[in-house]
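Session log. Operator J.P. requested a structure for one protein chain; no other inputs attached. Running the standard single-chain path with token output.
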Amino acid sequence: MSWRASSGLRSWLMQRLTALYIVVFLVMFAFVWGGQTITFETWRAWVAHPAANIALLLFIFSLLMHAWVGGRDVVIDYVKSASTRYVLLIIFALGLGIMGLWTLRILLLVGME
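Structure written below.
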């Protein structure tokens, strides 16, 4: 089977892997914070730790990839006009890219302080 022919399998696998990481991260997050009140200072101290920063970065990346695959599949399945489909996919990709860059900037700023 060629790589091009398996694009549906790649999308399916990406959805499942990103969903798995999102669930594991949220369970670990709930375990770490377990009923504590989260203040800005405690959050900043937690995010400043390199392991938490990397885990949070992977979480955001997984969340964006999960949204991209799901949103792309919905647009491809339900928008019949090719030009409208491409415009929507470009807008969606730009929006997700901007959110990812904004999050990366925040994590880098917190990590440097």
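Operator note: The domain at 7-112 is CATH 1.20.1300.10 (3 helical TM bundles of succinate and fumarate reductases).
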